[in-house]
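quick q for whoever's on today - can somebody do inverse folding on this one?? i tried earlier but teh output was garbage lol. C-alpha cells:
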C-alpha cells in the first residue's frame, strides 16, 4: 500500500524527531512510503492523487505522527475512508482532528472530481475528506496515531494566509455539497 507524507526541512528538534519516528513507524508495516518536500506547502489533493496510483487502498499521514497499527488490521469493506486520529504522547490526550487517512482508490476517484485546493500542514484539510465520506456513509475513524505534543501553529489555527485560504476553499466546497461550513 502507498502512503504519502510531506517532510519538512527543519532544525526544530521536535519536528526532526517526530519525522524520524513517523518514517520508522511506516517502515515497520512494510508500506510503500512516498515522501515529498513540505516546502513550499503541497496541495493536499495533489499529494493524494500521487499516492493513489497503485493498489486498492492508499494513505496519507502527517509527518509528525506515528502509525500504531498495521493498515490491514483496520481496513474493512464496510468503509471507504478511515480517519486516523491521534493520541498525544506522554499525556494521553485524544485529539479531535484527523492526521491521516486510509482511502479506498475507487472512492478517491469520486472524491477527487471535486477536491478543493487546500494546503497540507494547515487547518481544515481533515474537514473535507471526513465530511465528504460521511455524506456517502462510508467513513469511520479511530485512534491509530501517536503524536509528540507541541504548541499550535498559526497555520493549524487558521490565523495565517495559508490557513485562511484552506478555510475559504473548504467553505466553497461545503456550499457546493450541502455540508456544514466552518
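ok took a stab at it. sequence:
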Amino acid at each position: 500500500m502507498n502512503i504519502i507524507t510531506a517532510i519538512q526541512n527543519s532544525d526544530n528538534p521536535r519536528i526532526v524527531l517526530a519525522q524520524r519516528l513517523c518514517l520508522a513507524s511506516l517502515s515497520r508495516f512494510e508500506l510503500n512510503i512516498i515522501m515529498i518536500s513540505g516546502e513550499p506547502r503541497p496541495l493536499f489533493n495533489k499529494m493524494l492523487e500521487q499516492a493513489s496510483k497503485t493498489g486498492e487502498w492508499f494513505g496519507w499521514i502527517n509527518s509528525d505522527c506515528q502509525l500504531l497499527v498495521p493498515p490491514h488490521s483496520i481496513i474493512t469493506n464496510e468503509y471507504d475512508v478511515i480517519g486516523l486520529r491521534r493520541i498525544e504522547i506522554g499525556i494521553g490526550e485524544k485529539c479531535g482532528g484527523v492526521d491521516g487517512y486510509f482511502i479506498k482508490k475507487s472512492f478517491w476517484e469520486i472524491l477527487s472530481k471535486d477536491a478543493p485546493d487546500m494546503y497540507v500542514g494547515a487547518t481544515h484539510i481533515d474537514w473535507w475528506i471526513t465530511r465528504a465520506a460521511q455524506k456517502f456513509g462510508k467513513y469511520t475513524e479511530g485512534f491509530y496515531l501517536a503524536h509528540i505534543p507541541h504548541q499550535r501553529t498559526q497555520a493549524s489555527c487558521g490565523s495565517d494566509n495559508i490557513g485562511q485560504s484552506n478555510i475559504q476553499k473548504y467553505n466553497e466546497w461545503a456550499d457546493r455539497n450541502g455540508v456544514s461550513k466552518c
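fwiw The first helix runs from residue 13 to 28. also The first strand starts at residue 2 and ends at 7. so keep that in mind when u check it
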